[in-house]
Automatic annotation (TrEMBL):
UniProt protein name: Small CPxCG-related zinc finger protein
Organism classification: Archaea, Methanobacteriati, Methanobacteriota, Stenosarchaea group, Halobacteria
Pfam family, one: DUF7562
Amino acid sequence: MFGSRRDGETVTCIACGEECPRADAREYDKHGDRWDRQDKSFEYLCKTCFTETCRQPRDGLEATLAAAEAGETDRETFLRQYHELADDQT
Ligand SMILES: [Zn+2]
């Protein structure tokens, strides 16, 4: 064993902004098209947020993410918009 390749690779959860190991994250593609991976950066959800979003109506999450411009704005702006939108819905 010469070390595991996944060691040290982390991704940032789009919902809470926490970094978590890539291996533990859930890939989330707001476009719902997992086959077209070119020129796309996938978003990731940590386990906690993934579980939480699964309890929400999927349509609501999609709309919220789209409205918050997921992947189309810088993370800070996105997270702020996301949380504002999420707060509105609850
Ligand atoms: Zn998270």
